[in-house]
Design brief:
This protein is mainly α. The chain has a domain at 14-68: Winged helix-like DNA-binding domain superfamily/Winged helix DNA-binding domain (Arc Repressor Mutant, subunit A, Orthogonal Bundle). It contains four helices and no strands. The chain has helices at residues 14-24, 29-36, 40-54, 59-68. α1 (14-24) packs across α3 and α2 crosses α3. It is globular and about 30 Å long. It starts with 13 loop residues before the first helix and ends in a 19-residue tail after the last helix.
């Protein structure tokens, strides 16, 4: 089966994870740049690097990869519950 993304989990940085989360919220690269107080060109580079690392060809494929790999969740779907009962 031909997939638009690679399901293996590549190493993406904390900043790249933050950008994926903002993409998941529907922000454009320009809006992400404003939120993170960085240039749009820097965001463009991060997004390009994320696509390369994940094998995603577009934002939808990237979000599918991110959900499959626990990087983002939506309304409780694909979320890991953290056990806070232990000190």
């Amino acid at each position: 089966m031909d997939r638009a993304y690679d399901s293996r989990e590549p190493a993406i940085s904390e900043r790249e994870t933050e950008i994926v989360e903002l993409v998941a919220r529907g922000l454009t690269n320009q809006e992400i740049a404003q939120v993170l107080t960085i240039s749009k060109r820097t965001v463009d580079n991060h997004v390009s690097n994320i696509f390369t690392k994940t094998g995603a060809k577009n934002r939808v494929a990237l979000l599918n990869w991110a959900m499959d790999n626990g990087k983002i969740c939506r309304d409780g779907f694909n979320c890991c519950a953290i056990d806070t009962s232990h000190p």
